[in-house]
Every structure is written in structure tokens, then in C-alpha cells.
């Protein structure tokens, strides 16, 4: 059976079920460089390592990923991560790989050669992979279900983590029919813990997520949504001489901070991007009118800090950065 990843520096691998908080903290430090767990992370990690289902509510950017990444490092076998966004999967996988953690994703954007390599590894009986990111659509296919069953029968399925778990609820704003299809996982793998993660706090949605996934007596963790590093400021457009100049002055006075500006219309994105460029601020537009190659380049350039500002419609999603929204009629809002 595949062993847990050894700690960097040559120490022996930690065995499943015997990790103290100190040992878990040392894994956090060695792989991610952080000295302590945040909020409810440790409780979530301990819950799934003890074999319990867990429902974890944490704000965006609160560190939900760590709740399954640490178990992946100390547990035997592969952690399956179900995520709705291919861009996020790609991003997480490349960040994990850069830390020496064996992780992969399976999606339509992967080359056939890569997919084959991943499947060979999974079929090997001794996979090197620790984390496998997949879409809910793939999990629902009979071929992939069979693969998971094989992995499970060999004792190599360590945990199922469901990111953005609120997408399973028809009560949520983000319902995705494909998420409904993963509700059979509990029946299929009754002994494998399921970790449901979300930042959506509505109680009706939480209850629906827990029952739709058939979580068994789950540990329910709710982190504080009080984020002292976040502030809101509202400026009234009518009181400003020139909204675009106000935005560019704000960006200049904030230093080179990574930012997104949301606009309602594509044309406004293009317009404002041009204005910012004229002001010497590196920026790019992101909206559904651009082809996927251009959008990927914009995202990559922004993630790697080659571009400071993305001016986007909601097609961009909402990462954890300074956000200026210019999409309300009489005001624009700043969130940092
Ligand atoms: N214990 C920790 N100490 C310091 N930083 C941490 C810790 N845990 C996670 N982080 C960092 O916090 C950031 C946000 O983490 P992560 O992306 O997991 O958040 P998230 O809750 O999944 O957000 P989202 O809802 O956007 O998916 C990452 O840069 C991550 O490395």
C-alpha cells in the first residue's frame, strides 16, 4: 500500500490516525511555510483524518484548500478534489507541484498524453499522486466511477473533498446540475470521509448540502466571517469630476497592488482598460467577448503579476484581491 509522503528533510512518513496537532503543524510549515493553522483548519483536518464527514464554512480566501491538502500529505492514498472551475484547478495544481506535492487535474483542457499518464498512475496499484482534481461532470461518468471503485477497493482512496459544495443546492445562487450527480458518492464509498467546503453562509443552503451529500453525523465547522483586512468604501459618481481619473488615482496611490475592476458591460471594460494604459497602469480587459486563449493569457499574466489590473465583467469570478466595482449606477465601491 502506498505510504504517506515523507516529511521533507528525510523524517519518517506520518501514519494515518496518529498525528498530533504539532505534527500536523510541522507538515504545514514544511510544505507551505506557514507556522500555524488558521481559524477552523485544524479541526477540519482532524475530523477527516479521524474518518468523520465534515461540513466546513469558511470565507473566501479563508484557507479551505488546506483542509484537504494537509490530509493528502499525511494520509495513505489519493485525495479526490471535486471543483467546478478548471482555471482554479489548474492554478492549485501548479502551485502544489511547485511545492513538490504530487497533484494533477483531469479535465477537457488536459492533453490526451497527460490524461493517459494520470490514468496509468491511478491504475498502477501504487499511485504517486496525492491529490487529483476533477470536475463534477467527470465524477458522474461510469468510466471514472469504475476507476474510483478500483482505487477504493485497493484502499487507495483517502478522502473526497468537495469544493464550492453549495453548488449542489438548488437553494443557492450558484446551483450546478452536475453537482447533483455526485450525491451518490456517500453510497458508493460509505467508509471514505467526505469534506464539503463552501463560503456560502445561508442556513437553508447548508442544510441542503449536508442532506444532498448524505453526510453522516458530520463535524460542522463555521469560521468567523469577520475579516479585519477587508474594508468597504463607497464613492458617489455624481460627486466626482471624472470617475476614470478617480479610479486611476486610487490605483496609483495604492501602490502596485493586484486589482480587479468589475464593470457591467464589455465595452466599459475595454474603455477603462485603455484609460488605465494611458495613465501608465498595466491592465487588461477580461470578458466573454474575448476568445478563451486571450482570456487564459490575461488570467496567467495577472496571476503572475505581469499585469496589475484586470478590468472584467462577472465572467472573471471573484478572487481575493483589491476590488473596485464600477457596475452600480450611481456609485462605485472599493473593497480591499
Ligand atoms: N494557515 C495558514 N496560514 C497562512 N496562510 C494560509 C494558511 N492556510 C491557507 N493560507 C493561504 O490563504 C490563501 C487562501 O487560501 P485558499 O485559496 O485555500 O482559500 P479558500 O478558502 O479556498 O478561498 P476560495 O473561497 O477563494 O476558494 C492561500 O494563499 C493560502 O496559501
UniProtKB/TrEMBL annotation:
Keywords: ATP-binding, DNA-binding, Helicase, Hydrolase, Isomerase, Metal-binding, Nucleotide-binding, Nucleus
Record's keyword annotation contains Isomerase: yes
Record bears the keyword Nucleotide-binding: yes
SMART domains: DEXDc
InterPro entries in alphabetical order: DEAD/DEAH_box_helicase_dom, DNA_helicase_ATP-dep_RecQ, Helicase_ATP-bd, P-loop_NTPase
Protein's GO biological process: double-strand break repair via homologous recombination
Protein name: DNA 3'-5' helicase
